[in-house]
Amino acid sequence: MNFTNLLIQWYLREKRDLPWRKTTHPYPIWLSEIMLQQTRVAQGLPYFLRFTEAFPTVFDLAAADEEQVLKLWQGLGYYSRARNLHATAKHVAFDLNGIFPENYKGLLELKGVGEYTAAAIASIAYGEAVPVVDGNVYRVLSRYFDVETDISSPKAKKEFFELAASLLPKDKASEFNQAMMEFGALQCVSKNPDCINCVLNKGCLALQKNKVGELPVKLKKTKVVNRYFNYLIIKDAIGNSVIQKRTAKGIWHNLYEFPLMETAQENDFDATVRLIEGFSFGFKPMHIKPLHHAPIVHKLSHQHLKIRFWEVETDCEIPGAMTVEEIKKYPFPIVIHNFMEEHWAEV
């Protein structure tokens, strides 16, 4: 088929030189696919290199402490992926003797591995003829074939899976799937694609009908909730501070943070100070001051966090409080890590 041949030829010419493309071993392929689920290659590549240096094999990753894994993951977001990654490494290493399942169906049983990731690993590592379907694939196929199905609708995945399967050459599953992903990432991008210099432009129905900007169709909007976080950086008599682990389910599970006071709305300075004074510290604050002027806005997929950091001084020593050097060793959400790097830059 012309579409398939042109796509694979383009890929073989234009593909980026990436370390996980130089092997068919499932461990680095799995690692890269988990990291790149909701992350651009440019952002994910340094993490992949750090992980493979720290954990050259699945046994090394399985033997690691969870906090070490989360610390290395810090900044990639979606920390449940890191916890699932660690759990799957333990399962593969200890229950499967280090051998990954060798087919799509078996890979689907691994924690944190969905249909897209299983298809990617199965086709790239084992050559299994199962198509990948992700945002890039939706975009390429919807434009080329003028598919107006809402990609957020329940029927979309099955429809696009069947379309991709009909195009996939059984003996070149790895090249085709990687070509599809690479083409969507580099050529058929979401905004202002270079259609004039596209190898598929002669057959692209969206280009012919002037619909490139309208496809793929996505009608469902993500509901975003605003939350208001006030982090209290306690400075005790010897300059130590207190951190806590987020054990509740939800964002940043098992990461560390400073004592948190969440409010229902964004309060002014005086109201916030009164709330902090009433916070259950176990000591009386001597001084309370904001450490920056405007809230730091941290955007997650379904939440926008408006964050303020407050310094709370006391003249007593606090049991369990730690030095700045000790605190920096723990895994934190990137917004807190960045604040510490700036606030404690001299330490």
Helices and strands in order:
Blueprint: H1 2-14, H2 26-35, H3 41-54, H4 58-63, H5 66-73, H6 79-95, H7 104-107, H8 115-126, H9 135-144, H10 156-167, H11 173-186, H12 205-208, E1 225-235, E2 244-245, E3 256-257, E4 260-263, H13 269-277, E5 287-290, E6 296-299, E7 303-313, H14 324-327, H15 334-343
Commentary on this structure:
The chain has 347 residues and is α+β, with helices and mostly antiparallel strands. The chain folds into 2 domains: 2-214, Hypothetical protein, domain 2 (Endonuclease III, domain 1); 225-343, Nucleoside Triphosphate Pyrophosphohydrolase (Alpha-Beta Complex), CATH 3.90.79.10. The chain is 42% helix and 11% strand. The protein contains 15 helices and 7 strands. The strands form 2 sheets. Strands 1, 4, 5, 6 and 7 form a 5-stranded mixed β-sheet that branches. Strand 6 and strand 7 (303-313) form a beta hairpin. Helix 5 packs across helix 6 (79-95). The longest helix is centred in the N-terminal third of the chain and has 17 residues, at 79-95. It is globular, with a radius of gyration of 24 Å. The mean pLDDT is 94.
